[in-house]
Amino acid sequence: MFSKILIANRGEIALRVIRTCKELGIKTVIAYSSADRDSLPVRYADERICIGPGESVESYLNIPHILSAVEATDADAIHPGYGFLAESIPFVEVCEASHISFIGPTASNIQLMGDKSLARQTVKRNGVPVIPGSDGVVKSLEEAKEIAKAIKYPIIVKASGGGGGRGMRVVREEEELKSAVLFCQEEAKVAFDNPNLYLEKYLERPRHIEVQILGDSFGNYLCLWERDCSLQRRHQKLIEESPSPLINQRFRRRLARLALKVAKSVNYTSAGTVEFLVDSNLFPYFLEMNTRIQVEHPVTELVTNTDIIREQIRIAEGEKLSLKQKDVSIFGVAMECRINAEDPENDFLPSPGKITRYLPPGGPGIRLDTHIYEGYTVPAYYDSLLAKLIAFGKNRQEAISRMQRALEETEIEGVKTTIPFYRKVFANPQYLKGKYYVGFIETILENENDK
Ligand code: ADP
């Protein structure tokens, strides 16, 4: 058993990890930047240690500072949350070499799945369908042109090391290909230190459906079923729900089988997510695997009655999975809105600042994962996620009614938030029927602007 876990992250996910640790009787240390001094995770952790100033490279991404914090506080494990160092191979390797337990997958898991083009090749070899595209990295513009011609436009140019919706460009005709390749290469070099690109056929109006899996170090695997994350804006997720309103039990089992095949192909340990794009003929294609806890994990926790952070910790402690597949069924429906400090009236421009008024929602079926409080100042250094508003109901209708009520109840002032935007989505008849897809938001917004 771990006696003390250091959390190398901030915001709502840091608090989320602290909460499970408290329930498990494990002490916590929060490694924080000075910009987060007044944040809730810093208040709620058993111990706190400052690892540098606000700039991430000097704190949350600073490996030597984090390792010194582990040593100074005598912690025996690190939970990386998501983002920052959660998928950093050098970080995981140095933890492995220093005998500090990293609560997450192995460096080799991250290596094989973190490079998206390599992951495509690996899963394809194992019989999992991938979106038609390049066999690996494209080496020249000429090669890109040939592949694009073969798979037919529109195509999407993507960075092998990409993430967070960056390093991607849709190309509808050959004339646009050169500038897209140059753009993605530049962005990928700066953001991911890896200029490699690959190509995929661009699917029109697909659904993004992903499967949560768990693997322990004894070769046991578990599938916690799917989340539908098709409600996106500019390829960034905004609303997630489980189960997907699109699919039936048969398709669900098929996705689960494919996801487990992907996990087994790399001997995956810890929590991970296998993402698929599902086309209009209901054909699933592997998109990528995320080797970390995801922002949207709570919707799965609610419908499967599990604690994914707890399972991650148990697996890292060398325990076997506590559940058997036959014990994991789905009950009810859960939906999550990512409430960001952004101005939906102004192209979702980030809106950091002081929260002058805060009235959280509550009542039956509402869970709010957040680190904010009245008087808290949202720093400008980090992503703009303020809170995850999650509604649970025995069916989709009940979850929707609760989400609508909670969105009405919530009051956040001092910063702009995306709440007014979600109120609009939760009044859209097509969305409410579950008939949405990747690109739906752009279509609604465009229609509104045309009026
Ligand atoms: P990231 O790792 O940056 O999140 P992904 O490869 O997971 O990138 O893709 C993110 C989103 O981009 C998907 O959910 C989807 O909306 C869109 N996307 C990616 N590839 C394609 C594709 N081939 N066709 C259509 N949309 C795509």
Strand content: 25-35%
The biggest beta sheet reads: 8 strands, antiparallel
Give every kind of bound small molecule, once each: adenosine-5'-diphosphate
Tally of domains: 3
CATH class of the largest domain: Alpha Beta
Structural class: alpha+beta
| CATH architecture tag of the largest domain | 2-Layer Sandwich
State the total count of DSSP E strands. 22
Oligomer: single chain
Estimate percent helicity. 25-40%
CATH topology of the largest domain: D-amino Acid Aminotransferase, Chain A, domain 1
Helical stretch tally:
15
Distance between the termini: 60 Å
Widest sheet: strand ordering: 13-12-9-10-11-14-21-19
**Overall geometric form:** globular
Q: Poorly predicted ranges (pLDDT <50, ≥5 residues)?
A: none
Describe the protein's architecture and organization.
The protein has 451 residues and is an alpha+beta fold. It has three domains: 4-103, Rossmann fold, CATH 3.40.50; 132-201, 2-Layer Sandwich (Dna Ligase, domain 1); 207-450, ATP-grasp fold, B domain (D-amino Acid Aminotransferase, Chain A, domain 1, 2-Layer Sandwich). The protein contains 15 helices and 22 strands. It has helices at residues 11-24, 40-44, 63-73, 89-97, 107-114, 116-125, 141-151, 177-192, 249-265, 297-304, 308-316, 396-409, 419-425, 429-432, 440-450, and strands at 4-7, 27-33, 47-52, 77-79, 101-102, 155-159, 168-171, 197-201, 207-215, 221-233, 236-242, 270-278, 284-290, 333-340, 342-343, 349-350, 353-354, 357-359, 366-370, 377-378, 385-393, 411-413. The strands form six sheets. An eight-stranded antiparallel beta sheet has the order 13-12-9-10-11-14-21-19, with helices on both faces. Strand 6 and strand 7 form a beta hairpin. Helix 4 (89-97) runs antiparallel to helix 5. The longest helix is centred in the middle third of the chain and has 17 residues, at 249-265. The termini are far apart. Adenosine-5'-diphosphate binds next to strand 12 and strand 13. The site of adenosine-5'-diphosphate has 19 residues, from strand 12 and strand 13.
